């Protein structure tokens, strides 16, 4: 892992907010997608890429899922202790 990748992981780890009462974890891109869906805004080809970038940048976690170990893309890592 390069120094740049390590710095990025450290920044991403700080941008995870634990929200009490949240049923499951979601990213900022998921929030934007839900709002645009509710407003009836059509999705373009760049919307999915933007959603993924926002999800990697900022995520909201429930207290129950905050102890789950995740990789840099937000996927759960199995078989590793937190």
Distance between the termini: 20 Å
Shape: globular
The oligomeric status of these chains comes to single chain
Element pattern in H and E: HEEHHE
Question: The biggest beta sheet, please?
Answer: 3 strands, mixed
- Specify the structural class: alpha+beta
Number of strands: 3
Beta-strand fraction estimate:
5-15%
Number of helices: 3
Structure description:
The longest helix has 12 residues, at 3-14. This protein has one domain. It is globular, with a radius of gyration of 14 Å. The protein has helices at residues 3-14, 28-39, 47-57, and strands at 16-19, 26-27, 59-62. It is an alpha+beta fold. The chain contains 3 helices and 3 strands; from the N terminus they run H-E-E-H-H-E. Strands 1-3-2 form a 3-stranded mixed beta sheet. It is 43% helix and 12% strand. The model has no long low-confidence stretch (mean pLDDT 77).
Please render the helix and strand layout as text:
Elements: H1 3-14, E1 16-19, E2 26-27, H2 28-39, H3 47-57, E3 59-62
Parallel strand pairs: 1-3
Antiparallel strand pairs: 2-3
Helix pairs in contact: 2-3
């Amino acid at each position: 892992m390069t120094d740049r990748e390590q710095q990025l992981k450290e920044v991403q780890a700080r941008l995870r907010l634990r929200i009490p009462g949240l049923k499951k974890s979601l990213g900022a891109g998921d929030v934007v997608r839900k709002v645009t869906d509710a407003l009836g805004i059509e999705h373009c080809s760049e919307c999915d890429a933007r959603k993924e970038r926002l999800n990697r940048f900022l995520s909201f976690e429930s207290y129950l899922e905050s102890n789950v170990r995740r990789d840099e893309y937000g996927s759960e890592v199995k078989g590793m202790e937190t």
